[in-house]
Amino acid sequence: MSDKQRALVVLSGGQDSTTCLYWALDHFGKDSVETITFDYGQRHIIELKSAQKIASIANVANTVIPINSFAAMGGNALTDTDIKVDNSLETDTQLPNTFVPGRNLIFLTFAAAFAYNKNIHNLVTGVAQTDYSGYPDCRQKTMEALEKTLKLGLECKITIHTPLMFKSKKETVIMAKKLGGLSALAHSHTCYNNQYPPCGSCPACQLRAKGFKDAGITDPLLQKNHG
Ligand code: ZN
C-alpha cells in the first residue's frame, strides 16, 4: 500500500456512525475506507446486521470484533436483558441508564490496535458532544486525551476524526444527505426498543425524529419497505 491516507470507521449501524462513514468516503476516497463493528453483547443483533448492510451499500469492508465483557460487568440497559430503557429524556444532572461505562474508550482502543496492524492512521467515530445524553466518553476533551494516549501507547501517528462533534442532529441529517448517505440511513438502526416501524417514543427515536423534522427531510428509515 502506498502512503495514501486510509481510514477506519467505527460503524455501529446507527445514524451517526453511518453519516461518519459517508464523511470518510468523501474525505479519504472510496478505496481508502474500511469499517469495524463491535459485537459487545448489545441486546439487539439488528445493530450488527444494520452495520453489515450499510457497509455493503457503501461498498466497504466490515470486520466484526466480539467484545462480550460489558454484560458481565452489569448495570446498563443496552447489554442487560432485565433492565428497561428509561423512556424519559434525561436531565443534565444524571447519566441515562443507556450509558455503557468506557464503551467508546474501549472501542477506539480496539480500533486503534486493529488499525495499527493494517497500517491505518486515521480513526473515524460518530461521537458528538451535542448528543442529548452527555456521555462523558463522547466529549472533545476525552477524544483529544485518548488520541494522545494512543499515539504514545502505540508509538505511531494516529488521528481520531470526530466529524459530528459539534453538530446538532439537524446538521447531521443535512450532512448525511449532502454526502449521499440517505439510502444507507434507510438501513440504520436507532430504536432502543428494537421495533420496526420505530417505536417513536424511546429517547433515541425521539432524537432521530426531531433531527429529520428540523432538517425538513423525511427519514428514509420510515419510508423503507420493510421485508
Ligand atoms: Zn424507539
Ligands bound here?
zinc ion
| Global geometry | globular
- Taking all Cα atoms into account, the compactness measure Rg is 17 Å
Relevant CATH superfamily: HUPs
CATH architecture term: 3-Layer(aba) Sandwich
Number of helices: 9
Q: In CATH terms, what is the fold-level topology?
A: Rossmann fold
Report the strand count. Answer: 5
* Structural class designation: alpha/beta
User: What is the element string, with H for helices and E for strands?
Assistant: EHEHEHHEHEHHHH
If strands are numbered along the chain, what order do they take across the biggest sheet?
3-2-1-4-5
CATH class identity: Alpha Beta
Mean pLDDT: 87
End-to-end Cα distance, whole Å, is 40 Å
| Main beta-sheet strand count, sense and barrel state | 5 strands, parallel
Strand content: 5-15%
Taken together, the total number of domains comes to 1
Helix content: 40-55%
Q: Which residue ranges are poorly predicted, with pLDDT under 50 across at least 5 consecutive positions?
A: none
- Assembly category: single chain
Strands, helices and their partners?
Layout: E1 7-10, H1 15-28, E2 33-39, H2 46-58, E3 61-66, H3 70-73, H4 103-117, E4 122-124, H5 140-154, E5 159-161, H6 169-178, H7 182-185, H8 203-215, H9 220-223
Helix pairs in contact: 1-6, 6-8
The chain binds zinc ion (ZN).
